[in-house]
């Protein structure tokens, strides 16, 4: 990992004590009871009854530990606050305690390497994988919380996986961390430029080969300056939020919103990319998904321009 954390930007004592506050079962039960209550609010007596705590001193002690940040006292009783909601959201995502899997099943999309049908699967490592069972091509892999798998049929799972992955990628490319809202640093990087050399941060990454798009000649490296999030995104993802491109594709019969990421050639196909320059970076992307091929050029700063023809 290129990301070196100094002592100064590690979580502060305040953040660590916030976790300590949540370390008691009764405190989590209090948050859960408020979450389930109308208006996220209960009186002292209702709340104590909801968590079934007979010892009022003990109940009072633990409620006091949550107060002012996770829970506030109001005229009517106690009300769940935004930080309390976020604690419950993290638990409900299932990443801390659920081990869900989805066995491989066929998708309505073909492998761009060999033409066989792609499959989706989901493992206990919380990664969704769209791959080709015949040639082993990894079309797309990305973390997905167990909450995305629960209460959905297979079609619903892949639709949610596509939507959420898009949202996270777009947010990160816009320099906002999708997990902590912190600042994202982004830059082009490349493994296989015309000169056959590595350019940018990937030179120092020994785990880079594990990344599903490591065969792309250029990628956008995104790195949160605040939390642990960092990744490498296919350059073609930039085009999904450029109306000049999506409008052109719409007119030629490509529904960019309805087509899943793994079925958009300009996003997942390494061969669609041509690195014209690395200093500064200039990447041409052949967009051949519609009837009328076009070339989109992405430059440093992620400015996009269109050229006629593919
Ligand atoms: Zn294949
Ligand atoms: Zn972050």
What does this structure look like?
This protein is α+β, with helices and mostly antiparallel strands. It has a domain at 7-92: Orthogonal Bundle (Arc Repressor Mutant, subunit A), CATH 1.10.10. It has helices spanning 13-21, 25-36, 44-50, 56-66, 82-92, 154-173, 243-251, 265-268; strands at residues 41-42, 71-73, 78-80, 102-110, 117-122, 127-131, 138-143, 184-189, 219-224, 230-234, 273-278, 281-287, 294-299, 304-308. The strands form four sheets. It has a four-stranded antiparallel beta sheet, covered by helices on one side. It binds zinc ion (2 copies). The site of one zinc ion (ZN) has 8 residues, from loops.
